[in-house]
Structure formats: structure tokens, C-alpha cells
Design brief:
Helix content: 10-25%
Order of helices and strands: HHHHEEEEEEEEHEH
Number of strands: 9
Number of helices: 6
Distance between the termini: 69 Å
Bound molecules: 2-acetamido-2-deoxy-beta-D-glucopyranose
Radius of gyration: 19 Å
């Protein structure tokens, strides 16, 4: 190859990075952090944006504190017109990653979200911050978005408030996705967190 064509190739790559690079980011992070296979069998290709108060963001496995994530974040993802979505936040590491006997403890579940307007969705499980027990190390908090084929109802699940921890543990998003034929999630993200002194306040909120 002469210098001229090498230059064209280099400039071409810089101007048009192959899209495969961008679309591998989430699958690689989900593999590295073992979200695949601990939570779901196949990773989404896109990222869901999860932004907490003060602009703190989930970044595919970074560490945040329970204090930082105590209130519901702003969440967004790429949408198609006239489409409903399901959003979940789930912790596969309950009570610890080493001994996850209550896998998963789910923190948030909203269905029938038109686009990304979560205020118009049906809340099945209200938002609960992150409350990893003291001494249990880092927990993974996984966000997933599924595209729905139609409207979902789930009387069996009912409505879980964030004033109680009942029926949150021993739950599986993959089972819920199967039950409602949601397929593979279209977007995902995760952060990790370990105990800090906000956790006792969260337990009080849950009546524990
Ligand atoms: C509890 O859930 C309600 C209703 O979904 C929500 O508005 C509120 O922000 C949640 N509170 C906390 C502390 O997560």
C-alpha cells in the first residue's frame, strides 16, 4: 500500500468509525460484569441513560453510593414511534454477590411506558434506592429496557410500594420477560454500590 492510500484509509476510519465499536460497548460490559449470564442470557446492544441528582450517571459498572442513588433517576433510551416499553432496575447480588440466595431483589418495574415518558407508564414496583447490607461488598444494579409488542397487565405481580420490601426478592427479570414475551432487552446499563450510611435510612423507609 502506498502512502496516499494509507492516508485515505486512516482519514476514512477517523471520519466514519465502524458502528460495530459503539454497539459492542454494552455487550462487553455485560459480559465483563457477568450480567450475562447472571441476569439475562443475551445482552442488549444499546445503552440506557441513567442520571441521578447532581448529574451522577451509571456508566456500565462504575461505583456509586446509596446516598447518590436514593431518589429515582432520569432515564432515557432510543425509542421508536408509537411503542411501549418496560423498564426495570434489579440487583442479582442479594444478599451478596458471593452468596446470592435471594437473586434477584428488584428495585423498580414500570410497564407500558410510551416512549421514554416513565410518568405515563404503569408502575408495578415503585422505585427503591440501593441498600446493600453492611459487609456484603459491591452489588450490581442493572437497568434494562424492553420493547413491548402491546400493552401488559400483571394482576399476579400487583403494585409494590416503596414502603415495604415484601415480594421484591427471589424475583427474576428473565422470567417476567418470558411471561410477557418481551424478548431480549433493547437497552441496558449498570452501576455498582456497597453499604454507606444512607442504607439504614432506606431500611427504615421499607419498614425493616
Ligand atoms: C417512592 O415511590 C414513589 C412513587 O412511585 C416515588 O414518587 C418516590 O420518589 C419514591 N421514593 C423514594 C425515596 O424512592
Amino acid at each position: 500500500m502506498d502512502h496516499g492510500s494509507l492516508l485515505v484509509l486512516t482519514l476514512g476510519l477517523a471520519a466514519f468509525p465502524p458502528p460495530i465499536f459503539a454497539s459492542m460497548v454494552v455487550p462487553e460490559a455485560f459480559k465483563k460484569h457477568e450480567v450475562v449470564p447472571d441476569v439475562i442470557p443475551a445482552a442488549p446492544s444499546a445503552q440506557v441513560k441513567v442520571i441521578f441528582e447532581g448529574g451522577v450517571e451509571a456508566k456500565l459498572g462504575n461505583e456509586l453510593t446509596p446516598t447518590q442513588v436514593q431518589n429515582p433517576p432520569k432515564v432515557s433510551w432510543d425509542t421508536e414511534p408509537d411503542t411501549l416499553y418496560t423498564l426495570v432496575k434489579t440487583d442479582p447480588d442479594a444478599p451478596s454477590r458471593a452468596d446470592p440466595k435471594f437473586r434477584e431483589w428488584h428495585h423498580w418495574l414500570i410497564v407500558n411506558i410510551p416512549g421514554t415518558d416513565i410518568s405515563k407508564g404503569d408502575v408495578l414496583s415503585e422505585y427503591v434506592g440501593s441498600g446493600p447490607p453492611k459487609g456484603t461488598g459491591l452489588h450490581r444494579y442493572v437497568y434494562l429496557v424492553y420493547k413491548q409488542a402491546g400493552k401488559i397487565t400483571d394482576a399476579e405481580h400487583g403494585h409494590l410500594t416503596n414502603r415495604s420490601g415484601d415480594n421484591r426478592g427471589g424475583w427474576k427479570i428473565a422470567k417476567f420477560a418470558d411471561k410477557h414475551k418481551l424478548g431480549t432487552p433493547i437497552a441496558g446499563n449498570l452501576f455498582q454500590a456497597q453499604w454507606d450510611d444512607y442504607v439504614p435510612k432506606l431500611y427504615k423507609q421499607l419498614g425493616a
